[in-house]
Structure formats: C-alpha cells, structure tokens
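Render this sequence as a predicted structure.
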Amino acid sequence: MTYKLFTLLICLSFLTACKQDAHLYKIEAKQINVTDSLEIDEDIESFIKPYRVQINKNLDSVISYAKETYSKSDGEYNTAIGNLMVDAVYEQCNPIFKSRTNRDIDFVLLNHGGIRAIISEGNITTRTAYEVMPFENAVVVAKLKGEQVKELISYLVTEKRAHPIAKLNLVIDKDDQLYSATINDKPIDYNSTYYVATNDYLYNGGDRMNFFKTNDSLYVLDYKIRNVLIDYFSKTDTIAPKQDNRFIKIK
C-alpha cells in the first residue's frame, strides 16, 4: 500500500511539473479612429515638424506654369496631358538611351490609367508631378520584333482608349479598323525590330499589354516617370500641350 501511494505521488508530481503548451483561442480588438480629437504627442510632433516643413517646401516649389487645365478625359484617342507625358519621356530618356546604346528610341507607349490627376491652370509644383504620377513606375526600353509591334498596334486599335503614344501615329477608319500606322512618319517594317520606351508596370503585363513578354532585349534606365516629369517641368517655363493627330479616327 505504501509503495502504491508513493508511486502515485511520484506520477502526480511528474504530471504537475510537465509544461503545458499554450494555444491562442481568442483575439479581442477595438477600432481606434484617427481623428483630430486624438491628443498630439508633443515630443513626436517636435521631432517630425522640421522634416514636414522641409518636405512641403520642396513639394510646393514652383517649377513651371500651365496655360490651361489638362485632363485625361479631354480626348477620345489622344489627350493633351497624355501627349505631354510621352513627349517628356522621349525628350528626357532618348539622350540617355542613345548614350548607352548609340541608338534612338523609336516610339513611346504609356497607359491612360496611369495618369492619376489633372494639371491645373497656373503654377506647376513638384507636388503636381507626384499627384499626376504617384506610383514608382520607371522607364524601360524594350526591343520588339515587328510581329510584337503589330500586336501592340492591334491592342491599341481594339482598346480604343487614349493610351499615350509618341513617335507612333495611328489612324482608324469609321468601322474601327486600322487605316494606317507609321513610326517616325515612316511605314512600319514588320520584318525589323524597334526600341519601345514604356514603364516597368506595362512591360510586366500591366493593362494586359502582354506583347512585351517576348522581347529581344530590355534596357533599364533607372529613371522614374515622376522624375521625368519633374525634370521636364523644371526646364520648361510654360507648358501648353495639345491634342493632335497621333491617334485619330476618320469620321
């Protein structure tokens, strides 16, 4: 009897000493709304304030002037603001590309949805560029075969949206069929290759632009679209882009 009692006590001690695993069985939370009613931590505020002041000063610095207000909804097949963006990409990026490859960019393609704000009449600031292009999209140049260029053109004709293009001219007829297409005012040689500047989002298939996937070569310029705009605005006293005939429909 004593032996059994002793054995029982040993077993109970062993079981009590064993560490039990803890398991999460309930999570409780409450919503804390961020409003002006929350008290400001003066220590944090005093630390952040100099940086906020400097950032706002930089963002609000005037770098150009817009003669009118420009919106991506102003045109059916091409818009003044879209034309401005692709023309800026070509002007800023072609010298970089040529210095590295001894070749010119043949044409530029961006996307209509990538234009995220209007450019208002009046002063243009650095903040304007951030509003128009808030994403971190950067310029790349893809070497495309003629067959891919044909797919690219077919995509634009089918979409019938004002995707910004530069150095590429498209005309569709009243039945929405391709009437003519030229690059740098020359007929397209579908047996040749072309260097197309775009952004990395589209190059990776954004907006279903899958024709970039089988390119021959890719050149990364390490130049964000937003920085392209800032540099272009900084050297251009007054912008006055226009709709033109780079993508039109015959009525």
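Summary. The radius of gyration is 29 Å. The chain is about 35% helix and 20% strand.
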